[in-house]
Structure formats: structure tokens, C-alpha cells
């Protein structure tokens, strides 16, 4: 994320959604109650909100549930969320230093694009376990597309793809560019196959069979990272056909 750009957008939006008193009492009219509107015209705020909401989804996932609706106006929940997001971005390094071990952070947007494209919309709406499942489905579809097959999927698909058997009719294989048929190559094929089996058996399938508790953000990110590792292997391979 371009932090300076995000801060600029959020700062402008905060200024636009600041409430101003309107209108003033006159000799002939007295206005009762709290007559306030945003500093910028509604059309300006609506257009800018399209960008700002995407920044908020990235910086403060779940902000709509975290911050209560403000009865003072339609945009005041956004206004407060933008202020919080600015504080988060401005003081991120300090927060990490004071509250954590300043360890490296993983950016979900930098995961393999198949995985993040599959997960993004559900992740940003707070459905983390479903986001992992969607990423697994997307990876399966892209692997099928690469191999040109539709008659198997998920675990059987990757078992076929990474099998060390020679390719056969309707059973193409995936091979890394450095695969020379030696012991290391054989070990990589076996490892990629069993890794894929584990991802689909332990991460993708359980939510489809039984109700599961929602994942924490950290758990969900780790599971997405697992599928990202597999996706990078698949995207690097060459297709070998009979």
C-alpha cells in the first residue's frame, strides 16, 4: 500500500465529512434542533467514499461492525473510521515496536494472485473461513485450466498432476523447470503432492462437511499462505503431455 497516498485520501475525506452548522437563525425564522451537514457537498462525499471504503477495508477490516453508526449523520461512521485508519497508518511502526516484537508482517495482497483474487471479497467482508475455501476453489480451477482437464479436482487433481508416472492420455503432468528426473526432483514431486493433499484435506474440506468456528485473522492468513505456496509451484510448472 502507498501509505502517503492513503493518508492523503483519508485526510481529505475527514475534512469533507466534518459537520458544519447549517443554517443560522434569522430575524424571521428560528431553527430548532441540530441542523448540521457535511463540509463538502453530498455528491463529492459519495464519489470519494468509493475510494475511501476500499482503504478502510484494507487498513481496518471489519470497520463497519467495529464502529457504531453515528446518528448525527450518514457519513459519520465513515468519518470516525477514517480518523482511526489515519492513526493506524501514521503510528504503525510505533505500535509494532511497543506492543509486539516488530516481526515481519505478511500482506495478504502479496499472496499469489490466484489465492488473493479468490479470497478478497469474502475476506474484506469478514468471512475469513469462507475466504480460505474460495481461495482453494480458485486454485483448483486455475490448475484445471492449466492442465486442460475437468474430470478430476482437488486432491485427485494434484495427485495426477504431480505423479512421477509418465504422462498418459488425459493425464498430463506438471513439472518444475529444474526437474531433471533425479532424486531431488522426485522428492519435490512427492512433497508438492502431499502438501496439496494436506491443504485440501485439512483446510479446504472440513468446512464443507461440518459447521466450523470462524477463524481468527492470523489463522486465516496462515491458511491462505499455504494455498499461496501451492499456487506458486503450480504457476511455475510446465505441462507435460503424452
How is the secondary structure organized here?
Layout: H1 3-16, E1 19-21, E2 36-38, H2 42-59, H3 63-66, H4 76-90, H5 92-99, H6 113-124, H7 128-147, H8 154-161, E3 173-175, H9 183-204, H10 206-209, H11 217-236, E4 238-240
Antiparallel strand pairs: 1-2, 3-4
Helix pairs in contact: 1-2, 1-4, 2-4, 6-7, 6-11, 7-8, 7-9, 7-11, 8-9, 9-11
Structural category: mainly alpha
- The overall pLDDT, averaged over residues, is 90
Please mark out the parts with pLDDT under 50 across 5 or more consecutive residues, or reply none.
none
Query: How much of the sequence is in beta strands?
Result: under 5%
How many domains in all? Answer: 2
Intertermini distance: 45 Å
Q: What is the makeup of the main sheet?
A: 2 strands, antiparallel
What does the radius of gyration come to? 25 Å
Form type: elongated
Amino acid at each position: 500500500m502507498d501509505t502517503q497516498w492513503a493518508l492523503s485520501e483519508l485526510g481529505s475525506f475527514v475534512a469533507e465529512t466534518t459537520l458544519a452548522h447549517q443554517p443560522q437563525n434569522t430575524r424571521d425564522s428560528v431553527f430548532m434542533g441540530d441542523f448540521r451537514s457535511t463540509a463538502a457537498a453530498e455528491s463529492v462525499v459519495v464519489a470519494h467514499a468509493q475510494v475511501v471504503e476500499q482503504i478502510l477495508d484494507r487498513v481496518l477490516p471489519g470497520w463497519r461492525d467495529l464502529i457504531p453508526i453515528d446518528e448525527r449523520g450518514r457519513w459519520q461512521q465513515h468519518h470516525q473510521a477514517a480518523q482511526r485508519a489515519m492513526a493506524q497508518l501514521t503510528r504503525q511502526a510505533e505500535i509494532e515496536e511497543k506492543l509486539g516484537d516488530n516481526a515481519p508482517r505478511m500482506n495478504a495482497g502479496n499472496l499469489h494472485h490466484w489465492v488473493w483474487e479468490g479470497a478478497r471479497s469474502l475476506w474484506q467482508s469478514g468471512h475469513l473461513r469462507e475466504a480460505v475455501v474460495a481461495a482453494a476453489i480458485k486454485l483448483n480451477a486455475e490448475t484445471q485450466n492449466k492442465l486442460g482437464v475437468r474430470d478430476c479436482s482437488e486432491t485427485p487433481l494434484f495427485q495426477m498432476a504431480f505423479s512421477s508416472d509418465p504422462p498418459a492420455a488425459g493425464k498430463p503432468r506438471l513439472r518444475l523447470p529444474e526437474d531433471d528426473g533425479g532424486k531431488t526432483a522426485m522428492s519435490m514431486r512427492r512433497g508438492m503432492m502431499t502438501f496439496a493433499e494436506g491443504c485440501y484435506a485439512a483446510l479446504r474440506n472440513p468446512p464443507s462437511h461440518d459447521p466450523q468456528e470462524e477463524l481468527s485473522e492470523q489463522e486465516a492468513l496462515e491458511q491462505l499462505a499455504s494455498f499461496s505456496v501451492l499456487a506458486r509451484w503450480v504457476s511455475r510448472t510446465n505441462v507435460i503431455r503424452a
